[in-house]
Amino acid sequence: YVLSDFAKADQDWLDDLMRGISDGAAALAAGDGGRFQNAVAARVNPARNSGTEGLATAQDSPAPRAQRPERPAPAPTAFADKLKSLTDRFK
């Protein structure tokens, strides 16, 4: 690995960097540094969801709806019922 051809190894990322610089050159000339950096970053590190396969399958099949679990009937909340359960607990 140490004796590999560095020019060939660096060719891919250098090509992406140069294309990003050319994409953002107009923004840099206009004084918009943020847009220039965004153009370079978009070329060097493309978005993870840039593929078309994921979009097609996501649009074709909607996600299944989650079933809500049935809640048990709430315990009586009257004050007398609470006092009775408290006294029963400490008998």
From TrEMBL:
Report residue spans for region: Disordered: 47-91
Q: Per the record, where are the segments of Basic and acidic residues compositional bias?
A: 81-91
Would you tell me the protein name for this molecule? Aminoacyl-tRNA hydrolase
